[in-house]
Structures are given as structure tokens and as C-alpha cells.
Amino acid sequence: MRPINLLIGICFSVSIHAVQFTPEVLLSAPRRDPAIPNSDGTLAVYTQSTYSFDEHERTYELRVIDLATKESRALISSTEVHPSNPQWLGDGNLLLWLEGGENGTTKFVVGDALTPDAKYVAGTAPGPVGDLKVTPLDDGKVGIVVSGQANPDGSLYNSETAEKPLSSGRYYTSIWVRHWDVYIEPQRNSLFYGVLEKSSAKGYVLSDIKNLLADAGLKGVETPIPPFGGTDHFDINANAVAFVAKDPSLTPATHTAVLLYYIPISSWTEHRVEKANVVHLKGLKGAKSSPSLSADGKSVVLLAQEKDMYESDKNRIVLVRNPRNGHSPDAVEVFASKDGKGLWDRSPGSVSWTKDNKYFLIAVEDQAKNILYRLPVKHVERAKPHDLQKLTWEGSVSSAESLSADSDKLLVSSTSLVESSLYSIIDPSKPHAVEVVSSASDHGAAFGLSRKQLEEFWFKGAKGRRVHSWLIKPSNFDPRKKYPLAFLIHGGPEGSWADSWSTRWNPAVFAEQGYVVIAPNPTGSTGFGQEFQDSIQGQWGGLPYIDLERGFEHARRTFKFIDFDRAVALGASYGGYMVNWIQGHDLGRKFKALVTHDGVFSMTAQWASEELYFPLVEMKGTLWEVPEEWKKWDPSRFTAHWSTPHLIIHNDLDYRLTIAEGLAAFNVLQVRGVESAFLEFPDENHWVLNPENSLVWHQAVFNWINTHVGLPPISTDSPQPIN
Prior knowledge:
Largest sheet: 8 strands, mixed
CATH topology of the domain at 450-709: Rossmann fold
């Protein structure tokens, strides 16, 4: 262990200003989680990690910031200890967080936010757990819930202590064989609960933790839902736990149906719970997320979708006032309409209560930003979209917390295309007067970035619809010069280029290489209405391709500072599909080079994917029901036209789009004699997450495209050909 003494510091932004925003700067900059305020709104806690390419290791920090002075303090700063999931205990300055223990165990650590050395271990879980949530109980006790993998007998799974099988064989009799980057094993995610109780001699002491789902009589139920579910899939208070889980009667390979569960807790101390109630929401058969309990635990607000099998269906806000009555709950769909479409043509990403239970806080993607709204709970049955109060106008909100129970003010965590992490205080009575608490990048200045580099433009796409696009210029932009174009195509396809920060596909990194970046949001993009989003079904290479063609031509007519004879196109996932599609069509001849990351080569190969409901909806049926649809949008049909230099990147652990897709595309290019290269990561999934791998990714991508547009290579350390 190598402790780092950083007890008091202002911000990364004050002390470090990058000369140029390079991939190394992007990947080594501090990464902060959302900030959580204490009960009186004077302090906030957050975790932060920083990667060093000199030391080839990551430093983990647990930090507390004084919301009045804006000064932050590191309670922990270490390359070995990884604090996570900090939560405030009661009304004082005590914190509870998790740390990895010996042999795969997890330590529950209590510490004082104002005294870095005043910490102790309250208890240890016998395996890995996370997603810590706490709730105050009577007599100063605290209820805790964490997630972890459970063995078939309900006990907490620990891979380090589990008996190792003699054979590596796996035998399956159902379609659900693997998911994201792992093969399905007997263990399932579950929730475990216990109590912190004060001891005069030792401070807080943790009870045994038990499997909540097992105690409630639930079998075959898994929450949080893998691979991305976390604290957004359950909520707790002194009286109950509410959570969402896939319907265990349906295969997750072909269904997105999710159920809401409500478990009343009779006694946290005695681990006594009532039978779980399955809450049936009439007409809402699809996915569900973001359950949030009212202060008394008698109501739940959540997001629910109407359609099963369609993961990108519209999220509807639903208030359930009587979750104990599972089959006949008092459920209200907010903004419901007679035609079933809803009065608000947006799909929220999260919903929660304010501490006083008077408002819902709603984060929603809206025209390439993730905006925060507030909605009064009173008379919610008659609510109309004009009752929503808009609280933010740019960037992307990742978290919003009531500053205190007796204040309307909110502590908001957000990012933007030039801001890696921003903490601010918003007073809904005057939302435009934002109080900045902490900017990790000095509003982009630490990276040499500013919002002056950003533009938005709209153009007429397919069917005459207006299509949105971002334009990002280099920080040293000179309108008298001409710049090569980086044309970025987002994945999803139900996704978007939003005003948010990314460490994987960051448009600003491309701009700082000397490109003007155009990042369009064609048909299928989220945040522009459900009809625009749904229009991509059965149109993968159709309407979006037309939008991209027209966006390219609109830009050619409009932006005289772009050299369209030096243009490159890049995309990942569906964006990779589209780059492969473009390669076989006319638009492909307008680029000097292409880059496909984990893209589709052959539509029929999607039958090797794990979430089969996705292509079944997008192609409007199975391969044998509508073979013409699967054939129509298959990029491999047009390989006779492939001729533009092309870099293919694919990862072995990508079970959504298997490695064969990347190899097939590369092999076609090679046999056709097209200049091409192949970059492969055996230890990455659909994304490249390891910072050392990500640096190689950026070096390979930039060296490839820079070479073809006449810019200097980014690095001589990029991958050298093996053959």
C-alpha cells in the first residue's frame, strides 16, 4: 500500500491545466462519482479515481467537500484501498463505506467526515458486495442493504473461497447461455440486509447480513438486473424495500419484461420480513427501473414501459400508492392520455422524490441534453407537461439530491462535452442562478476546452424531418483555415450524441487532434420524441443512412472551414454497423478512411448475440418469418463495393457482437486488397475500459485517420503489426 497524503485541496482544475487535450490527459484525469450531501446540507461526499501512465496504477480517493467554502478533503487516498458507495449515517458527520477485505470479503467502514484518521471496521461481509444503501431506524440503529451474488442456497457467493470445479465444461438447456461479457453461472444477483447498531465500546457494529429475497420467499428472481443494474434498481426505508427484476417466468434472451416487487420489513434487527408483493401495473408489460420509495414507505414512484421485447420503449412515470396490494395497486401513470401515447413525448431516465416528498425529480434526455425537471406530487393525477419546472438547460445531469429536508435547494452532479464533472447547487425559486460548488476541469479550461468550441445545427433529413447535430471545433480554431472532418456515428441505435462527458468516445479529443467534428443524431436517436426514435425499426440502413448523407451534404454547403476532401468516418456498435454499411454504399467513397469498432458485419450473425429481443424487434421478426428484412439490411451483401481504407477493432469478450464479426470484415478487406488493419483486445467487452488498452485504442485510431488526412501521427508507440 502506498498512501498519498492529500488532506486538503481545492480542485484538480486549479492546479493542473493541460497544454493539449490528448488521450493521455483524458484517461488520466480524475473521475468523480456524483456527490451526496449530508442531512443538513453542509458537506458532501464523493469518490474519485485517477490513473497514472507513469506508475501504471490507479489511485482511489474518498473525499468530502465543504459546500460553503468549496474546499475538499481526502479521507482516503490510496493505490490499494478502494473505498466505494459512501453513505451518511444519521444527522452527524459519520460516514459508512465499503472496502475490499481479505479473500474476497467486504469491509463496512465507519469514519468521521472531519477527522480522516477516525475510522474503524463495523463488520465484514463474507463475499463481494456493493450498491450500499442505508435507512435510519429507531434507537439510533441503521438498516443497510447491499447487492451481491447469491449461491443457489441463498448464501453470499465468494469466488475466492468457493470450491473450484474439476471440469471447465458448462451445460445449458435454455437459450440464456451468456450475457454481455460473462457466461451464465448458477449464482444470481440478490439483495442482502442487516443492521448497524451502536455499541458503547466499539461504535457501530454490523449484524449478520442475510439474503432479503430468500427471506421473502422469492426464487429465481434476480436484482439488480445485470449487467448494468445497481442502486437504480432498488430503494429502501425503515418500513420496506422496493426493487425491480426481470420476470422469472420468461427467458431474458427474448423478453424485457420486468416486475416491481415490494417487501414490507417487520423487523430489521430480527431479519423478519413479510412475503414479497409482486406489483402488477396494468398495461405496462415492459422494462421498469428507478423505483423510489416515499418517506413513509407507502408509495413507490418508478419508470415503466408498455411493450415487452423493446428495450427502448418510452419510459412512463408511474406512482403506486398502495404497493402492498400487488394485484390491485392504486397506480397513476403521470401524463397519461386517452390514445395511450402519453401527453409528454419524452422518455425519462430517472425519477425520485425530494426529501420533503413534495416533488418528483425527473432527469430526461431532451434534444441532446440530459435535463433536470421538478414536478409537484400534489394533484399528480391531473398533471400536464406544462406543470414541469425546468431546472437545467445544458449539459447532462447524472444525479440530483435534496440539499436538506427543510430546503428546496438541490445538489446536482452533471457533465458536458467539455466538463468532466460539475457539482452545483440549484435553487428552484431561481434556477438560472446556479451556484458552482466544484468543477473537476475548471469548466473545461484544465483541458484547454471551452463551450465556445461547441455548436448545434439542424438539417432536413429523411421524410423532411429536422435532424440535430453537434459540431465541435479545435480549441485553437481559426475560421480562415480549413480542417479535416471527423464524422462520428453513435451506437444504440437508440442512443445519441449528448452534451455529456465520455472517456470512450470523446468528441473533444478528436477536435484537439485538429479535426472539426460533426456528430449527428439521425433517425433512431433518443431525446427527440418516441416517433423519431421508433422510426429506425426495419430501417437500419435506410432512414438513418439518408439522414447521414444529407447531414454530410448540408455541412459541405454550410461550413467553409471544413475540408471535405479530407474526411473520415468512425462508429461503434450500431455506429460500427453503419460504417460497414457506408463502406458498401456511395457515402463510403466520400471518406479517406473509416473506423469500425465492434460493429455488425452480417445480420444473421446477430443470432449469436445474447439479447435476441433486440434484433427481433429491430428487424420486425425472426430470420424465418421475415428473411427479406434480415437480408435487406445486411452490410455483407455489399462487400463488392468495399474500397475505402478501413480500420477494424473488435474485442474477444464482446458477446453482444462476437469477435467473428470483426474478423469477417477484416478478412473481406484483406482479400479485396483494401488497405486495412485489425486491432483486437482479448480482455475487453463491448467497450474498452482498461486505461492502458484505451490509450492503445486512441493511438491506433488517431494514427490511422491522421495518416489518411495528412495530420501527423499521434504517437510512435502505437501498436506495431504482428504479421
